[in-house]
Amino acid sequence: MTVAMDRPLFTADHDTFRQTFRQFIDREIRPHQERWRGQGQVDREIWRKAGSQGFLCPWMDEKYGGAGGEFLHSVIVMEELARAYESGFAMSLHSDIVVPYLYSFGTEEQKQRWLPGCTSGELVTALGMTEPGTGSDLAALTTTAVRDGDDYVINGQKTFISNGQLCDIAVIAAKTDPDPANSHKGISMFVVEAGRVPAANLLGPEGGGFMMMMQKLQQERLCVAIGAVAGAEQVLDDTIVYTKERKAFGKPISKFQNTQFKLVECLAKVEVGRAYVDKVIAGHIAGKYLVKECSIAKFWTTDMGQEVVDNCLQFFGGYGYMLEYPVTRAFMDARVQRIYAGTNEIMKVIVAKQLGL
Ligand SMILES: Cc1cc2nc3c(=O)[nH]c(=O)nc-3n(C[C@H](O)[C@H](O)[C@H](O)COP(=O)(O)OP(=O)(O)OC[C@H]3O[C@@H](n4cnc5c(N)ncnc54)[C@H](O)[C@@H]3O)c2cc1C
Predict the structure, then answer these.
(1) Residue 280 is inside which H or E element, if any?
(2) Whether 316 contacts 257, CB under 8 Å
């Protein structure tokens, strides 16, 4: 890597895991990326391949079919996917955002039922919080879950659900108490397979959904920040190579002082972002309560990533507008990172609350 930093978080074992996952990307992902983009989704088979080689939920206990790794293995998977410009294969959403709900809040029976499949790739997961009428204001969601004997009947609409088109199970937030006075305590989480939802698929306590989402959103936001820094780093690397090759006025465009200054500014931002995110990762692994830090990491790194990609894209001239170029797609991917997992404005709302404002 042109801009690689020394990162004390990782051991030699992690580096080996990174190399193995890079080989998996070269062999199983890169040859298919263009086709996947054309068909609007990855092949179902890639999930099983990733699972069989230990790349799904790499932190999972062995008793649930996992490799017994840790969150740092997931960090490596996120970073390497971002470096491969692969935004459609939502491994991290599955491994580090949805499955942790099952792992943390599931009963032993539920865990035995779902976790081995999530780890092997037999079960692909999705998380349904957002609705057409509400995204940021989760307490205002209107999907209802009404108890009917041994089942719950869930009614409502969800939108923008990543993996929604190919998932086997979805963790869904729904109101079990529609009384607006109980908006926070009225939300529950369900694991939806197909058709009616047996009461046994209630995840955690009835009415505990809002608390569960708030707890798990910390890691979700950190995951976005990890991807944002790695994505910006890769675009910068590729731009450095491009500016050395592309000539104008008889010399490589890397020789213009404007190019050098802009690329150095980008490098500084990526390295500062990386240092902060690595610090938050270390605290998160240590079990610290880092709602403020994860929110800051999410909005700062995604704003930074957008700025870096925008500055880099400029050096590609007209090619930077062509979708065939990775930098152009990286621009779109960077843009949405400022929106999902809680918009950057909502991140600031959260931090302002933490400051008692
Ligand atoms: C590619 C993609 C993947 C997604 N994946 C998932 C998924 O898997 N599961 C899921 O549940 N959702 C998913 N989402 C939804 C995403 O989380 C929401 O789009 C996001 O939370 C914003 O909600 P909204 O679109 O309803 O915008 P709104 O909530 O309508 O917000 C509109 C604007 O108002 C601003 N705003 C709202 N409230 C405030 C406030 N209090 N203060 C200041 N500004 C405010 C927002 O910041 C935003 O700029 C995904 C979205 C995208 C685009």
Answers:
(1) helix 257-285
(2) no
SS3 135: coil
DSSP state of 175: E
Q: Which DSSP symbol is given to 57?
A: S
Q: In terms of Cα–Cα distance, which of 326, 44, 87 is closest to 224?
A: 87
* Per-residue pLDDT tens over the stretch 165-185: 999 999 999 999 988 888 889
Minimum-distance ligand 1 atom for the alpha carbon of 126: 8
Q: Which of 87, 131, 136 to mutate to test the pocket of ligand 1 (most atoms within 8 A of CB)?
A: 136
Kindly list the catalytic residues.
220
| Cα-to-centroid distance, 51 and ligand 1 (Å) | 30
| Any atom of ligand 1 within 6 Å of the Cβ of 160 | yes
Start-to-end CA span in the chain (Å): 42
**Residues 191-211: pLDDT tens digits?**
999 778 999 999 999 999 999
pTM equals 0.96
Q: How far is it, in rounded angstroms, from Cα 224 to Cα 92?
A: 9
Name the residue with tokens 């929106």: 339
> Is 162's C-beta closer than 6 angstroms to any atom of ligand 1?
yes
